[in-house]
Prior knowledge:
The protein has helices at 2-20, 39-42, 51-54, 60-65, 67-73, 111-123, 143-146, 177-194, 209-222, 235-240, 248-259, 265-277, 296-313, 340-358, 361-364, and strands at residues 46-49, 77-80, 127-133, 136-138, 169-171, 198-202, 227-230, 244-246, 284-286, 318-322, 366-370, 378-385, 388-395, 401-404, 415-416, 437-440, 445-451. By secondary structure, it is α/β, with parallel strands linked by helices. It has two domains: 2-364, TIM Barrel; 366-451, Sandwich (Immunoglobulin-like), CATH 2.60.40. The strands form four sheets. Strands 1-2-3-6-7-8-9-10 form an eight-stranded parallel beta barrel. A five-stranded antiparallel β-sheet has the order 11-12-13-17-15. A two-stranded antiparallel sheet has the order 4-5. A hairpin with a 2-residue loop joins strand 12 and strand 13.
Amino acid sequence: MMKRIKAALPALAAGLSLIAAGSQAAPLAASQAPPVTPAWVRQAVVYEVNFGVFSPTGDLRGVEARLPDLQRLGVTTVWLMPINPVGKVKSIGSPYCVRDYFGINPKLGTSEDLHHLVRAAHARHMKVILDIVANHTAWDNSLITSHPEFYKHDALGNIISPNADWKDVAGLDYKSPGLRLYMAGVLKYWLRAFDVDGFRCDSAGLVPTAFWETASAEARKVKPDMLMLAEGDDKDLQDRAFDLDYDWRLLGGIYAVMTGGAPATHIQEILAEERTGYAGRALHMQISDDHDERRATVKYGRRGALAASALMLTLDGVPLLYNGMEVGDTGEKPIVWEGARQAKTFRFYQQMLALRRAHPALQQGVTQWLTNTDPAHLLTYVRRGGGEEFLVAINLSSKPVAATVDKTAGMQGWRDVPPALEMHGASPKGSGSAPPALSLEGYGIRLFQRQAPTAGR
């Protein structure tokens, strides 16, 4: 373990010595071509771990102990919220208040614990990504005194916060060549020393894209198949530096439909706009719940949260599960993991993820939107790829719907998908409905499958 850490230190020390000597660090070489997204990313299912609620011990060992549960669920990539030591000066206790970019919070464990977790995940063919906070630091980060030129200053020369709301942190200033070199070194350090599989980059849109472009290229020299995930939805970020970003537009669209009275067709409009606005290589992380949001179960109710997840899990992109979603958590501390309701909800996500994993049409297939006679509440579409098709119908309202689907896709040969989606209002037993006529309970979900029609049929 120590050999691997020591192997990573010379490059880090060399970079820091350049900065300490006041040298004008040469700018990192700019990447001339968009990054090539690793193949594994497009099949990924990302699971966000919030240490404080995920396990009884609340640490790295607690995550490792629960890897079998995550694998059984269908998770492929574990995102660890920041593991760095947390600042104490002006702090509100947020893990995004980083005191040491190269350290591990002792409350979470040791270097050996992180090594052991990454090795255990890799043995299960799972990935581990770290949360990197590049926009700001804690007020007691040593860089405050050793490199004040790394920070933003007011007219009087005082280091300032990045904005008026984030008083617990100090804003970094990427006009500094030394800072750019330092932060690129942070990424390379964690790749070399711990063999992690990439980074979720906090507030990525608040850091200059030019930095991300060069730092991403440098990091990929260490590990070419690493993931760069941007907390942001800026096309330029993905064109130049990142593999994946947040689909905040869809997140907002789901909320507008399920709570704000917007028609279900609003979802289709958002996705059409995204396809037009982004380059062909665009890939979004689909979210209905994360640590910055109220739990979907609170916003939409338990059945509504599952309807939102069914949408997320049957569209293009990479789905995100925030710890506790799989048991219908409503924000309890600690999360209640066991119980009959929790087991049913877990089974729903497990089956939906297995379905997605087994069928490329649900991951990267073509989407054909179908009109229906209740467009205000019912969303209907076909996913097509790999020689098969899925017809998806999701009732985004709490009231039952009965509607007829447009027949342009052809309505013969559809059969209900095997997973038992009867629970929580999905696929009501005994309804007898089949395309083109569909009946769904409130927040109901219907999935049908068939072989793709051959030419001339």
